[in-house]
């Protein structure tokens, strides 16, 4: 399991490259950047300063002091930018300070008025986009749990019977919400967090939470993106149809399955991430679906401590070994609903590989 | 269940008060502000602009367009500040624009270079701090589920037997991790999200995830903070001891129970939030615990879409009717571990009231 702070050497290299004196980040409590940089869940707004190979943190006085390996932690309630400037004063009275371009505006103004010149850096975002072996292992573990969750849904749907055009399981009508709770129970037993990301949609009849009763013949999308104990996310979505009549959803499923396979051909080291995204969409459309109205625009992107992180599948980023991608193929139609297949894929020197071996089929009894 | 956008009228009033032309926020995917302002889970960085009583959103082209009640949604991939300026251009060519003080620095610079003068506002933070009836109902519902989760832990601990100084349940040693998974299973069945916030700690022997085996005589803290379907959080922590010998943990528990009751006396409309926090700490210390080393500094604060939001229990905020507070009393000792009681409390015109009726005792068989 990944533990301890990460990103320090990437930050030090960026500081050297820019002749800067330090790197500053203001990390909100729930920002995965904090977990990455410190190795712990901070829970509160934290000032992170890296200078001369040393890490300093500042937390507010309303929390107990966290124990962060290799960092000195101070406690005060100054505005974040002033707290950062107070730490920087021990290293230099002015000069260039690196920060993410999204550093809070008030903190940037405080740092500038303390005599530091801000330059934006993508060092942390770029470091996070390349996963080491421990991080990949954490993603593989949470993806195994995700597979168990979808497997549970498949098993319930395979056991369901049809009565009056409604699916019935364990002597009661099966609703999106009931199926969602069963999937989440499995995720809890597997020891991962549901992360508010489990959704079950039934045909065109609304999202999870509204407890729509499931019917035969309509596409049921079961989607999970749990968080493992070290914070890393998985992502898996499958579409099932009970008593499929072989119409729209079969054709959409064939298209999504083919689009998913595009990643195995195109997600190579050195490939253009934007091109990969376009190719997934183009392959989906090639089966006769409208690029404008039916093919999803969300075909995935980097996944790690966040479900959406670098690299994006737009723009002209080049894929590198260690990128881990969410790959999503989906088609939506106003009369039929949605068909979707989502997986996690690792970009490696020996080619791209899906994490785990979840089947892709529409028939829940084939799982 | 709370649904639809919130905060619009508070923003409009702030715009009027400042003779501003608009309000701008850049909302990250996982920022609860986005859920508050739009009523939906956006999942991606979204530009929010409110002007002349109208709401505009901008999302990136890599996602499907969200359906947000009462808002017009546009899609492009400009930097957030430029996208906001493009929307503002339809209303005014310059003038004052309100924004949270933490607006990303790059977006602030783009807006300024487009001719707008930024003024910071706390309108959204302040609006979120006062919960309406629907929001309070959502918090009450998730707190009921939280109580079921802790109840499950109590029931397992009450059934556990002691063998060789280890707790045994269902024919196997009971660990922090095993108990945590059981609590999370109950939360899943109740239909709420575990939100990565379920922790079980045993005496001084490390945090959840390390799967420490539970022993009799040591304080076991079970802490949950689930998220309900509308995004609102609960918070509940209880401390149990199996076969307590009446030592440190009993004394610490009496202190925490008394400190918790302070909220029922002090959390009144018009009271100083910082004073409430100090009084909770002072009451804990009054039982002979060190304010510097043993009494927690995290005695709570506002709770809603985030576990930590306004009002803070430091500074000189005045409590108002509709504030919902997490109230936490905790004592940590290097040789004994931690004793903690956490609850949610509503500040009302007829006085403060804890949400739910979870017992506070140390003995799990009394639940």
TrEMBL record, chains A, B:
**Which InterPro entries is this protein grouped with?**
Creatinase/aminopeptidase-like, Pept_M24, Peptidase_M24B
- Locate the Peptidase M24 domain: which residues? 198-347
Q: Which UniProt keywords apply?
A: Aminopeptidase, Hydrolase, Protease
**One Pfam entry name:** Peptidase_M24
Quote the CDD domains the UniProt record gives.
APP_MetAP
Q: Which GO terms describe its molecular function?
A: aminopeptidase activity
Query: By what name is this protein known?
Result: Xaa-Pro aminopeptidase
Source organism of this protein record: Haloferax profundi
